[in-house]
Predict the structure.
Amino acid sequence: MTIKGFRKLFVLIFCLSISLSIFSSSVYTPPKDLYQVETENYRFVFEKDLYYFYEEIVDTAEELYAKYTYFYDSNPGKITVYILDDVDFTNSFASTGTNVIRLYVNPPEDFLALGGNVEDWGKFVFSHELNHIFYGNDVRDPFIYWIPSKLIKNTLNMYHQPSYLHEGLSIYMESKEFGGRFEDDLFNMYLRSEILSNNFPRYYLGSGSSIDIWSPAGFNYMYGTILVKEIVNNYGEGALREIIRVLNTNAFSNLDEAFYWVTGDSWTRFLADIKQKYLNEYDRLNEKGYKLSWLKIDDTYQNTGNLRTDGVSLYGYLVMPAQPKGIYKDNELIKKAVSSFDVNSRGDLLYLVTTYNMGYYTNKLYYDCDCPNGERLIDERVKAFGFVGNDKIAYSKLDKGLTALYLYDLNTNEAKKLIDFGKYVFNDIVGKEDIIYFSANYNNQTDIYSYDLSSEKIYKITDDEVKELGLFIDNDFIYYSANYEDGIYNIYRLNTNSRAIERLTNYLSGGFEPVVLKDRLYHLVYDHEGYHLSYLDLENAVKESFVLQSTFEQVEFESYEIYYPEDVEVKEYTFENPYIVPFPILAVDTDENILYGAGAFFISEAMNYIGFVDVYSYGNEVYGDLSLTFDYFTTNSITLSLIEEDILTSFYISNSSLWYLGNTINTYLGGGGLFKNTTFESYVLDSVFQIGPYTVNNYNIYEMGLGITYDSISGIKANLDKPFVVFDTKINPYIGYEDESIYAGSKLEKILWRPYISFESGKYRFDGIKAGGDIKYDFGQEEFDYLAYVQFDLSILYWLNVPLQINSDMFKPK
């Protein structure tokens, strides 16, 4: 029996299941030993050792709930908050469809431009993510307000809430409570450079859909901050709230219309006034001697960074057009796809890579030298690091949201803890033979410190409200970037003997990452296109000087003891609450028979299980399906279907990992089978390996790819490919085996045009055109096959990328 209507419904549900399964394991990967505490408005789920993190934020969470309820005049209901330590980076996110917040416990380094909140990181990041929940639940549109399912209603509501407003409002709320990005000079540098550029305004690039244009902090974060901040400054918070209500009430409205409706002013004029305000500020700073120009010595841009030297050559993580991203030594690529590294005077390398397996993202520090020992693992869960002389390594290590400082001896292969785990963050670590210098954020204040290895004493070198970043040691000088004046980062050097500080650059847009080599001060200069490599002659670089007023004071870093109160009992967290969406079935088969029934789609709050069940009938015949995908170590799927008198059962188990074995390797392994009633019908085994993934321009490629599949019915399939980029075109030659025949060919992809033409404040956008093709010769069949296409890339309803493709298969005779 072939069913017309139900096939369409099944395809719709299947596509929804596939799209949502992309987010499986995004909150966490079971199994984990988790515990829960319920309060009036929240359910907190955490690892037992992170009880302290929950306890620190719980009172603030209830206070913020009341404040946000007043701001939005709405109530999202109970929110589930997950607190885990399974990643080695800084982030958090919220799922408005399932009312879930996931908090990562590691506080941010200052160069992430998140406001410098280390001591109260949990409260700060919670204030940001909570706003996403409230804004996403503020459903006022009469077309969707009546929908009983929160999952569907909140998901649809996103499609008239652009990402730049989601992030702008969240940054506004975080800044009201904890300073946040509104007061971060590095983040404001990004905004200043964007507004002063000829590209302003392009807030539509932060609508929520994917784009190919680089930005230092995301267009949604940057423009969201600009727009929300200026609306509040010029019209007050009441106007901002009213604009939100207008947008949330009418799905056909957009930001410029809502702005005019509330303020009566022109949106174009409003944007022009922002530009003029920053131009006036530019004139003022220009009169003080700041400049936007610099010596251009190469094509570096975007997130170029991490300049280093061995005393002979200049090293750096360089990003350049048409070149692989990675570590370069005097413009020679020596390691692809690695950005965080250090080098000693022998040319030995330290570098950090991130692996992924079973839900854990782990930073691993490696040492590599041209010596008998070769490449070796130093430690895991590492953040900042640096050589101390040639034979020692200092590095910071994470555990349960806390950080410690270690020293590793390359001769003895032993590690020693220098500073115990506590609430601080190490931004940079450099050193001589007997002294380690580091920039650290401690008690929400960033300063330069030294650690004397002989006396094991810590000294505070600076004591001020500025942030000193990007340290470099040369004789008695510490070179660094700091925001001493006008909130602008420039390069300074501190004489550790006289305590005199000299300013060496006067860039309006910021100077960073100083390195002294052959009497030149190499450094990075920022503008809206990213960080650019430049240099100055050191002899004539001094612009002004002053003497550090504070003395070098001996200090102690206070460790933090993780505790769990003995008199507190918490429940184990054993089950994720499901969201269930019922649906009716009304279908017609090919014989015009009417079938009817019902089903339900379900997904858990942490998206670790998802599926649907349905039952429908025609006369005395009953049909049904049950499909479940769940995470438990691996991703597992099982489907049962009742078709006439047969029960079909299929299952599939898969896992994706990112390894480092001298080279980065992406792997996908999977396998499954099919039963018909109790008879085992078939099975399949899949494997995909991508060796050495890296990036050129906007193309993600790899050194070698291999895919092998064994199907018990059709046999072995294999494919080997090696993509590369030339003339900004991705070319992927391949060779494979299928159906007892060898084939070879090549795929091609090229972006032709990326205008990003916006309509309705980014609600709709024409992104551009790309073209490509595939030509293949089958040696067994002795014939060519080809495919050519032109693709028009659109974005609709802010968040959705929609590719419209015209290809040659449409015109081939059937």
User: Anything to note?
Assistant: The first helix runs from residue 4 to 21.
